[in-house]
Amino acid sequence: MEYPSKYIEKAVEEFSKLPGIGKKTALRLVLHFLGENEHFSESFANSITSLSNIQECPTCHMVSDLEGCTCGPEKKDRSILCVVDDLRDVLAIQSTNQYHGLFHVLGGVISPIDGITPDKLHIDSLVKRVTAKDSEIKEVLLALPSTMEGETTVFYIARKLKEQAVKISTIARGVPIGSELEYTDEVTLGRSIMERVAYNTAQ
Amino acid sequence: MEYPSKYIEKAVEEFSKLPGIGKKTALRLVLHFLGENEHFSESFANSITSLSNIQECPTCHMVSDLEGCTCGPEKKDRSILCVVDDLRDVLAIQSTNQYHGLFHVLGGVISPIDGITPDKLHIDSLVKRVTAKDSEIKEVLLALPSTMEGETTVFYIARKLKEQAVKISTIARGVPIGSELEYTDEVTLGRSIMERVAYNTAQ
Q1: Distance, in angstroms, between B202 CA and closest chain A CA?
Q2: Given this model, what pLDDT does residue A73 score?
Q3: Phi, psi values for residue B105, rounded to 5°
Q4: pTM here?
């Protein structure tokens, strides 16, 4: 497509580098800026450049502002540590309001075929964190994807922490709430039967 | 959702101001920047701020770079002028490779309910352009949306240009190429019968 302006062309090119944004969507977004005033574009551009102020916390590997990370000492259950693949999983778990403990972001899962070996992930720092003298961690909850790579990573970390006096758990797998049994895939349904939970008759 | 950084929060907010981008998509896009180097964000932000270099051509109301508009005198069929709603329609028509004439962008269609009266659109400048002494325009092709508002605008412009020695045409309405007749809506199918085209038996 021939663009009427090289500035539009450049902006479309930049937008279409983002995941899930093709040339048509990119053009629609860029033309939206033309309809707005200059302050709109500037405020948008500033918010992007100021992302460079974000740092990675050396302890939990979550991103954080310069002021300090959310893994700091305030109001957290420090006896449980949830291990996740990436930042989005932290946000998803936080939004459930069912978890108030610490997090540890691995930055991926073991996948030798993609060149992601255990040393490329924050596994060593996880072990260090759990074995630290002042550690209050009693349980490590592995909340990793239920893919081949995720399961491999669970197995690897469990082996690494075997000798430590911490309980290791994984998130429950089963039929999602609100789902019909007949539409659930066999593996998930099978797992939900294998890992069935005692029903509390007293409630 | 609670974001781990106020910079992420700000960028998510800015992204979700764009059309068709919700909070979840915005977050996915923002996190993509964190995975790239600083040059990536900078180049992206620059492309947005440099959109302010774009100007509107006072003749055809298309956006153009400072160097000059595509409605300039080079290699164009200056006897036909295509009137469209907005810039995206220009790009869509250009990409068909079936039109090599001039364009005129109205900047909308008449819609009194939304406060868009004829004086808010570039209709006066269209009339001026057609009636100019040095005008070479022989035909005005109205390529406007086939909505109530589009049809009203076609009617209004046709009335305005009635006295002028120019042919007025609209784009053909009918069954899209590759479509099944049974799935075409009745109005379109009816129109395609009313405006049937003589078949060239000599070909």
Answers
A1: 35
A2: 67
A3: -95, 120
A4: 0.72
